[in-house]
Design goal:
The protein is an alpha/beta fold. The chain has three domains: 2-90 and 180-207, Periplasmic binding protein-like II (D-Maltodextrin-Binding Protein, domain 2), CATH 3.40.190.10; 92-179, Periplasmic binding protein-like II (D-Maltodextrin-Binding Protein, domain 2); 211-278, Alpha-Beta Plaits (2-Layer Sandwich). Helix content is 26%, strand content 32%. It has eight helices and 15 strands. The chain has helices spanning 12-21, 53-59, 69-75, 120-130, 163-167, 193-208, 223-229, 259-268, and strands at 2-6, 35-37, 44-48, 64-68, 81-86, 92-99, 114-117, 135-138, 154-159, 170-179, 181-186, 211-219, 237-240, 247-255, 272-278. The strands form three sheets. It has a six-stranded mixed sheet, sandwiched between helices. The protein has a five-stranded mixed sheet with strand order 8-7-9-6-10. α7 (223-229) runs antiparallel to α8 (259-268). The longest helix has 16 residues, at 193-208. The radius of gyration is 25 Å and the shape is elongated. It binds adenosine-5'-triphosphate (ATP), 1-O-pyrophosphono-5-O-phosphono-alpha-D-ribofuranose and magnesium ion. 1-O-pyrophosphono-5-O-phosphono-alpha-D-ribofuranose binds at residues 10, 141, 157-164. Keywords: Amino-acid biosynthesis, ATP-binding, Cytoplasm, Glycosyltransferase, Histidine biosynthesis, Magnesium, Metal-binding, Nucleotide-binding, Transferase.
Length: 284
């Protein structure tokens, strides 16, 4: 099983980090290599450009891949790829934008005009649906500059914080696509056990994110009071404590943001020896 991941750029590190947290440790370093073996002898990681990953999967050079939805749409390979999981990073929007003080305020103003983009396929598809038909010019970077040097009247480009658009005095006219990094597989292999296994491993990291494991001792006659204040995931686990007298151990998974309040409340309800730990993975 080969899984293609971004070799550089902003998606590289978070992707490797996620694989590691999912237990898929990369063997002997990932730097400057084209591929790496993992602790799982059946899984090899291929390093490719984020934009090439959809093609790798479609061609069968890799069975699975991690990249932005924008890249998959732009590749034109959406039909051959199955999206298995939203990995919830690399969140951005592809937007249509034009100079703030120019004469383009709406989509219809673009009839007969020019739009520059690194995403020509997505841009053409977007305009095909609107009935407006501007000329699309492909560039490979610094798209935000093109309206200021009379190369284009508007652009379709990525935005997340909005800083780049603002610095270049460009205003958003419309949203073209909302994207994030996702796990993809070739449609022919989605039901293979290894593919499911990898999906579950990555998903368990996302589920554990923002959750904490709470452990405490509780006198038996206070259990109901404690149970009432734990906003647990499927209710707490209750266990006997060796030589614990009348005390039992209560374990629960709690949202990180609820931890502070929950500790205060379980203490008030009679709990002691409260321990909070991180959760690496949570398979539901
Ligand atoms: N500002 C951003 N915020 C969030 N996600 C982004 C942003 N810019 C790009 N992305 C996501 O990351 C993907 C790859 O972008 P990135 O700039 O890291 O790689 P690249 O453009 O291939 O690399 P390079 O720019 O070094 O050639 C994009 O397709 C998109 O999904
Ligand atoms: O809304 P913002 O937070 O300003 O982000 C948007 C910018 O981020 C990306 O560029 P990147 O940083 O990847 O540089 P690049 O042009 O070298 O790819 C994208 O091409 C935009 O220019
Ligand atoms: Mg970039």
């Amino acid at each position: 099983m080969r899984i293609a991941v971004p070799n550089k750029g902003r998606l590289h590190e978070p992707t490797i980090d996620l694989l590691e947290r999912a237990g898929l440790h990369l063997e002997n370093g990932a730097d400057r290599k084209l591929y790496a073996e993992t602790v799982d002898p059946e899984v090899t990681v291929l390093f490719a450009r984020a934009a090439d990953i959809p093609e790798y999967i479609a061609d069968g050079a890799a069975e699975m891949g991690i990249t932005g939805l924008d890249q998959v749409r732009e590749s034109g390979q959406s039909d051959r790829l199955a999206e298995l999981l939203d990995l919830e990073f690399g969140r951005c929007r592809l937007v249509l934008a034009a100079p703030e003080d120019g004469d383009i305020d709406s989509l219809s103003d673009l009839a007969g005009r020019t739009v520059a983009t690194e995403f020509p396929r997505i841009t053409r598809e977007f305009f095909a649906d609107t009935g407006v038909d501007p000329e699309v010019v492909e560039v490979t970077g610094a798209t935000e500059l093109t309206p200021h040097v009379e190369m284009a009247d508007a652009i379709v480009d990525i935005t997340s914080t909005g800083t780049t658009l603002q610095v270049n005095r460009l205003a958003i006219i419309d949203e073209v696509l909302s994207s994030s990094v996702r796990l993809f597989a070739h449609e022919d292999v989605v039901d293979e056990p290894k593919v499911r296994e990898l999906r579950t491993a990555l998903s368990s990291v996302l589920t554990a994110d923002g959750k904490r494991y709470l452990m405490m001792n509780v006198p038996e006659d206070r259990i109901d009071a404690v149970r009432d204040v734990i906003p647990g995931l499927g209710g707490p686990t209750i266990m006997d404590v060796a030589n614990g007298g009348d005390k039992v151990a209560v374990h629960a998974v709690v949202d990180e943001r609820d931890v502070f309040e929950t500790i205060t409340e379980v203490k008030r309800a009679g709990a002691s020896d409260i321990l909070v730990t991180e959760i690496e993975r949570l398979v539901e």
